[in-house]
Amino acid sequence: MKNTFTLILLMLFVLGATGAWAQQRQVSGRVTASDTGQGMPGVSVAVKGTTTGVATDSEGSYQIQVPDNSAVLVFRFLGYQTREITVGSQSTINVTLNTDAQQLGEVMVTALGITRETKALGYAAQSVQSEELTQHRQPNVLNALQGKVAGATISSTGGAPGQGTNIQIRGINSIDVGRNNQPLFVIDGVLMDNSTSTVGAGAELRGMSNRLADINPDDIESINVLRGGAATALYGLRGANGVVVITTKRGEQGSLRVNFTSTAGIEEVNKFPDMQSTYSQGTRGVYDATNFFPSWGPRVEQARQLDPTHPERLYNHFEDAYEMGHQFRNSLSFSGGTEAITFLSSISHLTHEGVLPFTDFSNTSARLNAEVKISDKFRTGANFNYVNSGGARYNADRFNESLSYWSPRWDVTDYRKPDGTMNSYGNNNPIYGAATNRLEDDVNRFIGGLSFGYTPTSWLDLTYRIGLDTYNDDRTRTAPGPLGVAGERVYEDNGQGFVGEYTTKFRAINSTFLASANRSFGEDFNATLRLGHELYDRRVKSFGVFGNELTVHDWFFLPNARLLTSTQDLREYRLMGLFAEASVDYRDFLFLTLTGRNDITSTLRKPNNSFFYPSASLSYVFSEHMELPSFINQTKLRLSYAQIGKDAEEYATSSGFASYTGLPTGNTGFTRAALLGNVDLRPEFTDTYEAGLEMSFLNNRLGFDFTYYYSLSKDQIINIAVASTTGYVRAAVNSGEMRNKGVEIVLNAVPVQTQDFTWDSKLIFSANRNKILSIREGLEEITYASQFGYVGSTVTMKLIPGQPYGNIYGSHWQRYYGGAEEDPLFIDKDRPIVIGENGFPVRAPLTSQKILGNSMPDWIGGFTNTFSYKGLSLTSLFDAQWGHEKYNQMGNFFSAFGIADYTEDREDFRVFEGVLADGTPNTKQVWLGQGVGPDGVDYGDGFYRRFHRGVSENFVEDASWIRLRSLTLSYSLPSRLFENIFIRNSSVALTGNNLWLWTRYSGFDPENSSTPSGSNVTGFAGFTYPAVRSYLITLNIGF
Amino acid sequence: MRKIYRFALAFTLIGASLSLQSCEDYFDLHENPNLVSNPPLNAMLSTTTHKTGLNSQRIAATTAFYVQYLASPVAGNATDTYQEVDLTGTWDAIYLAMADIQDMKQKGMEEGATDYVGVANIMMAYHLNLIVDHWGDAPYTQAFDNTTLTPRFDSSQDLYAEALRLLDEGIAELNKTDSRIPLRAADDLIHGGNKTQWIRTANAFKARMLNKVSKLPSYDPTAVLTAVDNSYQSNADDAEMEVFEVRNPWAQVAISNTQLVLGGWLSEQFVDHLNGTTYGVFDPRLPRITEPTDPKFSIAPYIGTPNGVGNVGTRSNTDRDEVYISITSPLTGETSPITIASYAEMKFIEAEAAFRAGNRERAYAAYLAGITAHMNKLGVPEGERNAYLSNPAVAVGAANLTLDLIFKEKYVVTYLNAEAWTDARRYDYQYADFDLPANAELTTFIRRVAYPQGESSKNPNTPNTPALSEPLWWDQ
């Protein structure tokens, strides 16, 4: 906030016309905040209609020269309602600012750090402030944004410590599932990598971090989410999926301030699936304590008669296998400065142990932000951030799969024998797997930026910024070999033991130069012209060696391995943009902005590598233009159009021969590279149209912001999967069209506002509709993902023209159409299911794969309420993703292995509802169990294994959810307590995250998916790392 | 103050100079540093010979269930019971190998390396046969040539003719003596650079192909015998591949089985074929193929698993109360070679062709020579070998030799070889006691495999697969 003020001030100086200084006199006072009652430093105090302005000092006090008694003072502070007070005869004006749910009239950091008045923006933009980000104490900043930004679908991929989180802004933009659809992240002007690396044997399923997890949320001042093409135009093609602009805290002039925040928390799995508790181990009702099948045996009572050692009740192996997790974060920051230099430094440490045994994550971060004002014309600044992060990751998919095989007749927590080998009755013990089959990552990262500003004259400003984001991501993958002791059971995945060492070296430099000129033309027009140059240069090198079959079983040392295989990859990318922005405003109510940018990219060949695209946006603040009824405050209409170009992935224009990896060391070979490159690739373009209306009423107590957008991407660059008969796996082509359209609504209200008590409310809602208009000539569909299901229940995700992205296709029950035409894509659930002569429902032929659901939510919403009473504040956040489906692979296994609670009906007879092939109603009674039923008929493997598990339709479930994302109760100790001691302020907060979840989904929390963050495949729940419910306590002390 | 001016100017210039770099090379990052554009021929030979060996095993890993060498431990297993299984992985491996072979051939022609062209032709013919013998019609003329992303399907008859042509052309190329670049022994993972053996392999493949059409009127046993004559002269000539990243893939199946990733269970059909149950004579190759059951269960030493039935008996899957692929066998040990084609197999092709041509003496001699060669390959001691060869059930004399006996013995020789299924279909599965698997999807024996999802979903030219009981053209 303070830096924003500095920038406002600069803007005022830079942009403002000179005003007359006559009959001046001084007014002073103090500005306090309504929520804390304390003095507010850094509040902008300006004389309306002039360029005169000052900032309050660290105690909230100010002094300002005013021309005359009719002067109006404007008090502005981001996040608070702006107040205007006519000076009159007063010489002391004390002001209390109320928190502002609606931020119209405020300024916002837009593209390239340019601060603009919100009312001048012709596109939707939404910012989230520090308090909102840190109140849930989420270790990953993306999780802190959940439910707060319209148009951003944010989902954790699972509940592991450090596990990646996915963000998509306004839906999927590319029909190439391999393309990155995550927005660009910019921190203090430095382009920041947020990829999720899956380098390392089997890392895809190990919940790796998205790299934003490196950032300490306590360092962040604000996050602005730029969604549409007009908002991101200046960022060029790298901003094509939206831009998240992060601004970190700055020091402020005054004495040294020290702030200490400490959080401790515990967590547990928030939702387990329902399981049967009646049937023991074995098959066909026959008890066998070493049988592979965990739950197709007899009832527990019967098993106990045969086996006196059988426990009285089955174990609840899923709940037993998970533990209570805990986390601690301590952050310490120092800030202060003089008129010339301000600084902020912070250090932070997080340790987090997960609910799945032997998983953890830690993060240590150190930051230094400094700003130096060398003279009135020169300024420079630096932001340095060093981070070390990483932890032990486990394959939750494997863990839950193994748990599904594990018989609850046995205690899964007794996983290790005294000799160190796996303790098991036969099947793999999942906890032993987690203890021994390991992947640890260790990331050392530096993000730094230097900026220089020069203002030679009042109307010209030049800034230059150079940023560096670099890290080494080291991963070690280990598993011990067999100990070789008698009776040893080897954990399957550990094989003969292995050690893998992987390193990724990432380096990205970005340089931005921006010249801004401002000029007024007459009374009514004010124009700003900006010209800029941007360069981005990225190099990512990774290499690894995997050593298989260890000689000394637990010495994880590459020379100790019998077989070594190596991998190596280098990717370099360069992009340069030249851009211009011209904005004109007319009488402060009509704002027009035009931009143009030309990119030159290294991923396309000449002449296709250089391309231009424009944008235009208009903001019409009619509350400033015409007289509106008094209950209406600011009202603004926005219109914008933007075109955004997009380049290819690295090396999509070249083919060649790759190392053939099937040979042992000592032999080398080459094979055709998987990708058929295309030298003629052209840039793809997306046209976005956006319209919006913002209104606020009743003294800004009520407000809304409505946005409609429509975007069309044409001629997409895709690495399409091709038939192997072409000799390739993928081919780079320009093909396909995709459309996204949607609405975003933000509602703000302050239902109650008294001196002591305030109730603030904010609702966000957004809905996106996607449609694939075309794929590639000659193709009817593109299958881009699939997930296994038993005997024909494997589901796929396919692109079919006319259908939206995210559809899940799979097998289904045969329905009776009686000669009527059957829709090839949609199931008609009103039609009766066809029952076979054997009395069981019939699966349609596997060649018929129908749409069983779509993984993209129909709408997402967030509802935040804050109740403040003096120093006490209670904030709740409800968050929802609605109208989407996921394939529950674990559910498929739960059917196959008799784990699901509904399989308790296995000893029942049933007449399946439906009709026979000739349309007559089914009357045949069948038994659902395995083997020979009471009716003397042999039912073989029974209904669930023979029929139910083989039909995808049974396992694609409604994954809609609504949850109490967080509830925070915080208390700021009254400042009078600290009057005579060194402490300035102190607060304590209790937070509960994920306290309540409503969903129809039968597995773990449906927010999660089995694909890593950054993946565009969100339809598979797999066997995810379960989500957690956490309880945290936070103590904050300022000195 | 002036210093500061300069300072700012310097940084402005950095920005400006970076923009000037835009010229030419700075953005010229098109060549993928992870790839090479022109690999040496020998490095393509190692890849293609390796892939050829692995693909022969990959196909057999499916069809070994159809010929009932193997049976699944799980009841109703899809492959075991003739359900449509998706063989995308196998299909892709074959086509991506063919692409590499094509590239090697192309480069060999450009560089005048006739040896490489010859070997490429032979391996291409082998892969075409794998396709024709399992799926039927398939892309070739438009495959892997960069002209289309959706290649047309050619008729299997055409592919068969093309494969024969490639073999003849391959032999001609290898007979040239002016190859600019000789085969590099260390990178020829099949014949170690021995051109004579490659020519013999070409003839072996030809013999197989000519014999494959035994049901068709065009069948010419004399041509078969000519090809056999020009093929292998001893076990030492066998086309084998023994370079593995970790170990022989069959050995991997065996090891995984001991680690509870169940697989490699020998079928009851195959075990009974060898242990005396079916023919009343114990075949001494059996102990060289598998290990006996765990004696502590005091059961028969060699027990197979019935196809489609899964694990039989009350014992758990993990108890060694049936027999499996063994790493102690010279055929499936960790370093054992994968046999692509063998001298012993040629002897049985000779026996069959001679028999069909009415030359019973030659047929009988080849029949005995084939058994002998295979026993030698398996390391059967001379005494046991001779005892078997002189057993009345085996030593029937030329006059009493039957096609049944030839197929019966060849069935053992082609254990875990892709060619076994071709024989089974030509022979209409008439092996003694050979039954449909339990709960089979089909009412007759399986005759083809389904086109893979991977192709049909990306190539609209892919035909629909007929019923898997529909014979392929050469099987009709």
From TrEMBL, chain A:
This is TonB-linked outer membrane protein, SusC/RagA family. Residues 1-22 form the signal peptide. NCBIfam families: OMP_RagA_SusC (TIGR04056), SusC_RagA_signa (TIGR04057). Residues 397-775 form the TonB-dependent receptor-like beta-barrel domain. Its main location: membrane. Belongs to the TonB-dependent receptor family. It comes from the Bacteria. The keyword tRNA processing does not apply. Gene3D superfamilies: Carboxypeptidase-like, regulatory domain, TonB-dependent receptor, beta-barrel domain, TonB-dependent receptor, plug domain. It comes from Pontibacter lucknowensis. Residues 122-243 form the TonB-dependent receptor plug domain. Keywords: Cell outer membrane, Membrane, Signal, TonB box, Transmembrane, Transmembrane beta strand, Transport. InterPro entries: Beta-barrel_TonB (IPR000531), Beta-barrel_TonB_sf (IPR036942), CarboxyPept-like_regulatory (IPR008969), Plug_dom (IPR012910), Plug_dom_sf (IPR037066), TonB-dep_OMP_SusC/RagA (IPR023996), TonB-dep_OMP_SusC/RagA_CS (IPR023997), TonB-dep_rcpt-like (IPR039426). Pfam families: CarbopepD_reg_2, Plug, TonB_dep_Rec_b-barrel.
Automatic annotation (TrEMBL), chain B:
Residues 454-467 have a biased composition (Polar residues). It comes from the Bacteria. The keyword Transport does not apply. Pfam families: SusD-like_2. Keywords: Signal. Residues 1-22 form the signal peptide. Residues 453-476 are annotated as: Disordered. InterPro entries: SusD-like_2, TPR-like_helical_dom_sf. This is Starch-binding associating with outer membrane. The lineage of its organism: Bacteria, Pseudomonadati, Bacteroidota, Cytophagia, Cytophagales.
